[in-house]
Amino acid sequence: MTSLVLIFQIFVCISLGYFVGPHLSQTIKQFIFKILPYFSYILLISVAFELTQALNHVQNPTAILPPALLIAFTTSIGSFFICLITYKLIDRQSVQGKISLHLFLNALKNIAKAFLALGVGILFGVMVNSSGLTISFNSWYLLLIFIFLIGIELAFTQFDRSWLSWKILLVPVAAFVGSCLASLLNYFILSNEYSLNEVMALAQGYGWYSMSGILFTELHSAKLGGIALLTDLFREIFAILLMYCLGWRFPRSAISSAGATSMDVTLAMVKQSCGTHYVPHAMMSGLILSLLAPLLISLFLSMKF
């Protein structure tokens, strides 16, 4: 399956959900909004299961953890500081929020659920591999259902023209620039095992682990798919930590480090730690990066340098 076909399928599903959403009955809409937060865990279980089966044929699968941690940490920090420097130069205004211990504990609970889902999928995959059974499963189609449901959710999001101001759009730009600059540093460390275009592609998931793991596996290999999955899972964790530690003081930078997750997973944390004033920044940055992530991953993987 070529990258263009994959991208086309993603945009068809999110567009279909966006246009179908307003025509659904109230009962169906409430059901979708209720299951959507849990769907990502189901998808994560399926991705972990599929990758465990595929990694069974990869030599030394534990080697994917160090590069995943390195890329996740450097891209998160890179996005944070590029955004910080940018706004220090052009806009010193800062609206501070308050930190809630309850919300912080809830965030840790969500992280634990993500790792639990990952562990369940891995355990199931190991059990299937050890039993000698062969189960044919493709997480890609489950991901398309998830993207369709996200499109329905977007149909009920209230957009405002002020959300397209250049000050808001600089947040996702800083995330992209910071991730790319971090990739150059990572390449010098990982150049013996990975090419520059692979390292650049791994930096373009922006925390959307349920998408990146599948996309890398489809377009490249199970090994890179595993690295992408862990990279974006760790990137989400680093973003949450930055949000609560520094979001009250540097809200736009924290949102930039959150990447695509600022539109969904970390949005509640943006409201609490950064302030309601910065919700448009989070929504637009997350939306733009979510749309760009599969395109940028496919673009960098198709290049050879």
Automatic annotation (TrEMBL):
Annotated GO MF terms: L-lysine efflux transmembrane transporter activity
Pfam family, one: Lys_export
Statement: the UniProt record of this protein carries the keyword Transmembrane helix: yes
Highest taxon above the source species: Bacteria
Transmembrane parts of this sequence: 6-24, 31-49, 69-90, 111-128, 140-156, 168-189, 278-301
GO cellular component: plasma membrane
Ribosomal protein as UniProt keyword: no
Alphabetic keyword roster: Membrane, Transmembrane, Transmembrane helix
Record's protein name: Lysine exporter LysO family protein
Taxonomic path: Bacteria, Pseudomonadati, Pseudomonadota, Gammaproteobacteria, Moraxellales
